[in-house]
Amino acid sequence: MAQRDTSSLSVEAASVRPQQSAWQRMRANGSVRFGAIFLFILIFISVFAPCLGTVDPTLFDAASRDLLPGKFGEIMTLEGEVLKHQFLMGSDSFGRDIYSRVIYGTQVSLLVGLLTALASLALGIVFGLLSGYIRWVDSVVMRVMDGLMAIPSILIAIALVALWRGSITTVIIAITIPEIPRVTRLVRSLVLSIREEPYVEAAIAIGTPTWRIMLFHILPNTVAPLVVQGTYICAAAILVEAILSFLGVGLPPDIPTWGNIMAEGRPQFIQYPHNIFFPGIFLAITVLAVNILGDGLRDTLDPKMAKRL
User: Fold this and answer.
1) What is the pTM of this model?
2) For 162, how many CA atoms within 13 A lie in the half-sphere containing its CB?
3) Are 62 and 54 in contact (CB under 8 A)?
């Protein structure tokens, strides 16, 4: 009798454990912790950039051009007042503080990355649900997506930015469009497998409306893969924005971004490598941290990978 009770309790515990262990697995995963902590630090830097930045990133003084990191110099305020200032990361060829420009550049990079990921996921979910569940829509939508994927994403982004005036909105749209087909194909493949599940067939049998099946029966089962895909899109968007700005077809030079800072320091890289080194380090670590976070989420949210942990 006692053995029956023990076995029943063990079966019940086994059925509850997978539902309760997802958050515990994420907390125990080193990749998730590292990526989440660094992403939180970046968000903190971007929110409090006016407090962390020592001066306005647009202020400059010709007498303080190309100073090495840690050197003191002068900087002219918007009111024409000249102040003595320590350039923690040195100054560029215009006498602007690289440290403040890198700190403010965090705002642009995170904004572009997060908004691009959200927009790509939102549009990809809509197209993926429709093409995966409605067969006549599939033949139309997927041919358009295949056409977009045939063109390199960086070329699409450069072409779109060249057509319109460079701004944050334009850059986000230009980076989002090439990412939509990837999300659409992912959602479509998930929908094609989920729609054959017994609970979906049962919902169809009792006359559940199509929109309700897609929103309440199919969409919730695509959340985990989409969260992982969103982290990769965010990292790619940050990198593409820096590439566009570095090539001179992204955001205007007066907006402090990591790509703009590196582009302005490129002609003097041999003599003053700090102009490229500091924004490059921030860019590399940010992309690496977001990708590591995505790998950790994949390991914890994917049932097949979770069984190996």
Assistant:
1) 0.83
2) 8
3) no
